[in-house]
Amino acid sequence: MGEHEDFNHDRLKHHFAQRVIHQARHVLEVWQRLQHREWSGADMAEMSEANVRLLRYAERFQQTEHIGLARSIERCLNAVLANKGRLSSELISELNLAMQRLSRTGLRHGDQLDQVFLPPLRKPVYLALEDHERALRLARQMESFGLSCRALVDAAAFQAAMAERHPAAIVMDVDFSGPRHGLALAENLQQKLEQKLPLLFFSEADTDTPTRLAAVRAGAQEFYTGTLDASTLTERIEILTRVAQYEPYRVLVIDDSRAQATHTERMLNNAGIVTQVITEPLQALDALAEFQPDLIILDMYMPECSGPELAKVIRQHERYVSVPIIYLSAEDDLDKQLDAMGEGGDDFLTKPIKPRHLIATVRTRASRARNLKARMVRDSLTGLYNHTYTLQLLEDAASRARRDGRPLTFAMLDIDHFKKVNDNYGHPMGDRVLKSLALFLKQRLRKTDHIGRYGGEEFAVILPDTDLDTAAKVLDEIRRRFSEIIYPAEPEDLRCTFSCGIAELAEGMDCNTLSKQADEALYVAKRGGRNRVEIHRVALHRDEA
Fold this sequence. Notes:
Elements lengths: L2 H32 L6 H21 L2 H19 L6 H16 L20 E4 L3 H12 L5 E3 L3 H10 L4 E5 L7 H11 L7 E5 L5 H9 L2 E6 L4 H12 L8 E5 L3 H12 L4 E5 L5 H8 L3 E4 L8 H9 L9 E5 L4 H9 L4 E4 L4 H23 L9 H18 L3 E8 L2 H8 L1 H18 L5 E6 L2 E7 L3 H15 L15 E7 L6 H17 L5 E3 L10
Parallel strand pairs: 1-2, 1-3, 3-4, 4-5, 6-7, 6-8, 8-9, 9-10, 14-15
Antiparallel strand pairs: 11-13, 11-14, 12-13
Helix pairs in contact: 1-2, 2-3, 3-4, 5-9, 16-17
């Protein structure tokens, strides 16, 4: 093959690489739209058509991961058709998992193509700084947090990049390519865009009010002066560009009538809501612990116990106090409805009910409950789970691991010499380091893993379906990458490390023992020189003669 043919072949490959990326985005956009309404035959057809194109382009370009995901989505959609066009909780969960994986994929350098740039699924961040060396250093640091960054040398390079692809966000020096030229460049850009881009301005020197006002008028969401550090920027960009990853609402339906429960389940499934049905009220607490619903739909009249009685039992458990309970009953006596709501209920819906009414009520209540729960169970500084809720999650994970015979590991992390960070650099820097590690862990661990702030500078990680050696390998890689982050500071830049101890749930072990073993392993890591991961292994003792 000649040089000209090689060039054309590469261009063709590049073309299909772009098509895979764009089609993956289209599939995700259709999926997001479907979460806000009842699914219809037309919706399913649109999803199927988008996925067929994704599979075709992925096969043409030989993208193994995209091929596998497209086929998984195809199997789910075929199963829906085989089920007379009806969704089920299992299929909703399977589709959602495939979509989450699709949202995290992207073509990278070297994927079947050595010399052609392949844009990742996630848009890059453009860094337009007057000091290009600073921009390059910052780009490398931000890439440690999983962002794709592109440092641009001048206004011409910036405009060329914008013509090629719009970024997720722009970090712009007010003096990029000349005094105050960055301000004018950004303002001119935003005026041409129907949907404004997240814009963060920077000035090496402190600025006056007119400059900041000009930045606001150009569309600035933030204005930084003096220094720029990767963790602060990454955290802010994550907030500004976050596309909420849809997680289907989970509803527990408790009704002694199997026919009525199935009817309710189908209405909710058709709106993409995952359900579990309980026809025996006395099984409700076990189902709550296992299923962890966002909301409960409860029949009012059941033979073993009434709905209000069961609601009172549920409310006796502290962890279920904020879970919304909606009565769904044929009872039309207003006084009885109000009495029932006074017994732990949040709403009362009367049978028969239109699907739109039920779905709208469930979504509204579940959304508010999620927001409230997030505030109750998360640490305000880092956004991670607080100490109490982390222990609840550990108990739940241990229960599932024992039942399914699967491994479970628990890790405790502690930032090394954190007191010196606060003493030498101040508490704001200490907070920055804490938030940086929290973000780092969230970006590098699985969605099924749970991360908590255990207290102070101590963090906890629950890793289901993970043995000791695998957990150690994952966390040691995180430890190594975290130690490379630089925090600009005076009199010198700061680097931080953490130590980690890991233990695995053994037969007959309770969670207190598991956490104690992880703590002991952490102590060994600290005593062994810090900045290391240690595993707690049960010693085998032999009786001495």
